[in-house]
TrEMBL record:
Name of the protein in its database record: Anti-sigma-K factor RskA
Single Gene Ontology MF annotation: sigma factor antagonist activity
Residues passing through the membrane, by range: 108-128
InterPro entries membership: Anti-sigma-K/W_factor, RskA_C
Taxon lineage: Bacteria, Pseudomonadati, Bacteroidota, Flavobacteriia, Flavobacteriales
Length: 269
């Protein structure tokens, strides 16, 4: 795995969010000490996450502190008045009055602690929800980046084929029943290898597969089975001679002869 693959693996984001295993964290810390590119990627990812957290931070309402203090005052006032208006407590028993005051103070502290505890729980729940949302957004961004990288790779492969002077391009246009369909055959006139770009064809139904045919002296010759993994990058067959190409939809694995009613596109060289 090279440096760029290591950076795009997601280990840096996992480390920052505390999700990396001890072994993964140790390896990353060691790599950062010896690789400036990884260290810069780490700093950039850390800043991105900090900016994201700052942008999504929710400031508590200005009157929250006042509401908490008023709540404590409401709990405290009745308890403090009770010992003062009570005239039945004998003067000879000061310890009982002290116990009442201590009980009153304890209730006030308990009420305040309950309020603070609820605020703490609510804050933790909010923080956990924000963390989950942040991780989901990061995962979505990573998925989008991978899709963009894959699209760019396919584009580069097509550009290499187009710029190859030995590569002949044959446009296959939709037949009457599939007029909106199209595909492109890349035929290397030097190696005789045939590549197919068929991303514009409808997705093949379950159990079916597109098959390419080379028309040689008026007869169809099997030119290989198409799959999305092979698109534009894996040669389907070696065709020494052909006057045209066509694509039919066949059962999975192909057919020895084309099913003419299932022909989608065709193009002459």
């Amino acid at each position: 795995m090279n440096t760029k693959e290591y950076i795009s693996s997601g280990i840096i984001e996992s480390y920052i969010l505390g999700l990396a295993s001890p072994d993964e964290a140790g390896i990353l810390e060691c790599v950062m000490k010896n690789n400036a590119e990884v260290r810069e990627a780490f700093e950039e990812a850390q800043k991105t996450l900090e900016d994201l957290a700052t942008a999504q931070a929710v400031i508590p309402p200005d009157d929250l502190r006042t509401k908490i203090w008023n709540k404590i005052q409401q709990e405290q006032t009745p308890q403090e008045v009770a010992p003062v208006v009570s005239v039945d407590i004998p003067a000879a028993e000061p310890q009982e009055e002290i116990r009442i005051q201590r009980t009153s103070n304890w209730k006030v502290y308990a009420a305040a602690a309950s309020v603070l505890f609820l605020i703490s729980v609510a804050g933790n729940i909010f923080w956990m929800n924000e963390q989950t949302k942040t991780r989901q957004e990061i995962a979505q961004m990573e998925t989008e980046k991978k899709n963009q990288d894959l699209a760019m790779l396919k584009m580069n492969q097509k550009m290499e084929m187009i710029s190859n002077p030995d590569m002949k391009m044959v446009m296959l246009k939709g037949v009457e029943k599939h007029s909106d369909s199209k595909a492109m055959v890349f035929w290397d006139t030097k190696t005789k290898e045939v590549y197919l770009n068929a991303e514009s064809l409808p997705k093949a139904p379950q159990g079916m597969q597109y098959q390419l045919w080379a028309i040689e002296d008026g007869k169809p010759v099997n030119a290989g089975m198409y799959s999305e993994e092979k698109d534009s990058k894996v040669a389907l067959a070696n065709i020494p001679k052909a006057q045209a190409f066509a694509i039919t939809l066949e059962k999975q694995g192909g057919s020895p002869v084309p099913t003419m009613e299932n022909m989608y596109v065709m193009g002459e060289i």
